[in-house]
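Journal club side-thread
Mid-discussion, someone asked how the predicted structure for our own chain would compare to the paper's figures. Pasting it here so we can look after the session.
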Amino acid sequence: MVKSIAVLKKLALLLLIFLCGSGVARSTPRTTFEATLNMPQVLINFSSEVSSYDLKSDNTIIICAYSFSKEVFAVYSENDGISFSSPILLSKNGRHPSIALKSGNVTISWEEAIPNHINNKHEKAIAYLKSSDGGKNYSATEIIVYTGEALTAPNSLIDNNNNIHFFFLKNNPNTKENSLQHYFEPLKKINPIYSSLSEISGLRTVLSEDNLKLFWESSYSGKFDPFCAVSFDNGASFSNPMEVRPGNKAKLLPPEIKSPPYGMTLYSTSQEIKCIKRPEDHLLITAAVSSDKDFPADKTINFYKISSNNLSETIIPVAFSSRECDFYIRLSADNGLEHSGYSNPFLYKIRPPKSEFTLNKPKANDWFKPGASIYIEASFEGSADSISDEAEALLSINLSKLTD
């Protein structure tokens, strides 16, 4: 019941913003937003239409940003929408805000009109600021700008590593080219994702534990083509754009093992598996290693590798048990939209080298006085993987085992 009330309160806030967008005669001061489930209460009245807004919430806070009369404001609530803060002015020349909220960290971006002193006109840039206290205080505004090109429709995101990303559209008025751009805030770096002479719209991001998906539409002459790009490394790299129209692509196939060859005897417990795939695919490849050909979960270890676009071969480091055994490996792939299924398993015979300790000191003919301290030095030959972290050595003198 408590969860349902919280949801209804958030829905009430959405209705409130919608109703306020219709406009009234004049701007009035902030009023209290009362906790009623029947009718949304007035938070702010506006003298003209609210052109755009965004709303995000987590377990402790609700953030709403909106643009009104070329200005961008933000309000926050810490009590499930029962009351909100006074509006905080973010920009006097902006519109279309976008919020990213994660664990009390807030980032708000918007379209900002900045003066071009060369042609005495305004250019569309992306502005943003950050808050680490749930929207109470914000950093200084930062600007992303391309001279002579318009940047619009920002989409803000905070990834699983708490890094900030912005996705936005760029238009070149000379070439008429539209492009989708990605700005990685920690490095202040812009990467192009997609470009077209067609109009781009409907930009949306979906973040999960495994990947980050970016969706958009490209339209021409009334025809809309949906696209998606996927990142498996929190935005460090993206796949080539993929059309997501049903039935437009061949089924995703698993990578194939190229080396070592099937049935080979391996003498090291650490190996590199080389596999091949279609170079146009951007994949998260899983190498499953098991001592059982049926790959039960309790006997299987998975190793992962991201294989980028334009690569036909990928190296996946794997590790085996140090004991003599036969192991099976099979590969699968995920492009963010579908899973490939599994490749045929490869069998390998693991034969690690024998391990041996050699006593270096004391020597066989060394003499010691009664009560003397004896320092022992030994060397080990073999695979280090064959010794566990808790391994103990047993020492004996004159066939009597030492206890200390």
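Post-session note: The helical segments are 2-20.
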